[in-house]
Amino acid sequence: MRFGIFSNGFRPHTAAEQAYQADLEEIVLADELGFEIAYISEHHGEPLYIDKVDTLPVPELLMCKAAGMTKQIKMGSAVKVIHLHHPLDTAIQAAVTDHVIGQGRFVFGFGSGFSSPLFCQERGLGFEDRHERLMESLDFILRCWGTPAPFDWDGKYWRGKNICATPQPLAGSRIPMATATDNEQMLHLAGARGYTLLTAHDPPHLLKQKTARYLAGAQITGRQRTALGQIAHARFIYVSNSRRQALDEIRNAATFELSFQIRRGLFRFVSRLYGWDLPEDQVTVDELAERDWFIVGNPDDVAERLAGIFHESGGFGTLLMVTGKNWADRSGRLRSMRLFAEQVAPVLCPLEVG
To answer: How far is CA 270 from each of CA 55, 105, 161, 273, 327, rounded to the nearest angstrom?
Structure first.
């Protein structure tokens, strides 16, 4: 098993600059601790976030700064919401990011993002046709990377004449790619093309079902032997001296975030996903820890539960530790990362996908 972080930023509003500095500090530490990759969320503003939560809508800018502060960690967007942006601009931004970060350390992660019509409405785009628009955007982006000469595009959603997409990606026409999706067509396509599949917090039985659809696509192109190793799975993990101490340290910040996720509808989606019969007014961090939404405790307890999730789900290649939160204080957050790298990861490292 390999390890990374999922910098899923959600910090109480101060100034965005302070939130970004905290994100950078965690990425730098992850690099020092030997984590292989940092996936960074693209979070757009919502009315309920105003003056309450800082967001990072352009993760590529943070990656470029982080590249100059780190030595080897790879970085990818999780995810670039490509149906919101003109594909030409997306392709150029990704290629530039690929060159600025350098050394093959950039991964182009894409997807449709949180299922809210707000972001489409802000840009005068349709919400119901977002998946179809995403598929055309993906084809357009790949054409930009694979065609040095100018070309025309006359699609259903995007059009252009004499399109000149420079620079081309660092290693020719291909940037390593990843996607987060529940869409059947995209799961199949990702498996067939060898895109890394990003998953987060899925209960083991549903992760296993999603993996099966991804593997079915991989089988078509003969990739099934390596496909499980290309699945990355993110979990809320916090390591401390004991379960009680861990819960006490994350409770205030996690409760703050939960209050927003309930209001914006994410918790209803999660409840359906997990089959929970849990009224929203009874949601607590302690209850969700009992249900394995938060994996917290001492290193031995955390390693044991994560190994259980690995086996119950059928396995995955990379485990991503969620960061970007104001859990505990600064020293507690960094201590949790160190405890994970030094005492949890060595226990899980020998786990191999079949």
So the answer is: 21, 32, 43, 5, 21
Tell me the mean pLDDT in the region 153-175.
94
Q: How many CB atoms lie within 10 A of CB 238?
A: 28
Give the pLDDT confidence of 25-42 residue by residue, as tens digits.
Answer: 999 999 999 999 999 999
Give the Cα separation of 79 and 100 in Å (integer): 19
Tokens of residue 94, six digits:
């990704």
Cα→Cα distances 274→25, 116, 203, 249, 283, Å: 33, 20, 6, 25, 14
The CA distances from residue 24 to 27, 56, 94, 238, 290, in Å, are: 5, 12, 20, 19, 31
Task: Tell me what pLDDT residue 43 has.
Answer: 96
Q: Is 314 left (phi over 0), alpha (psi -120 to 50) or beta?
A: left
The answer to whether the beta carbons of residues 299 and 18 sit under 8 Å apart is: no
CA-closest candidate to residue 91, choices 154, 159, 169, 31 = 169
pLDDT of residue 278: 84
Region 165-189: what's the mean pLDDT?
93
- Region of 205 (left: φ > 0; alpha: ψ -120 to 50; beta: rest) is alpha
Going by C-alpha positions, the residue among 203, 211, 238, 194 that lies closest to residue 327 is: 238
Rounded to whole angstroms, how far apart are CA atoms 322 and 334? 12
Tens digit of each residue's pLDDT (9 = 90 or more) over 289-315? 999 999 999 999 999 999 999 999 999
Token pair, residue 308, equals 């259980």
Contact 182, 199 (CB under 8 A): no
Map residue 263 onto helix, strand or coil. Answer: helix
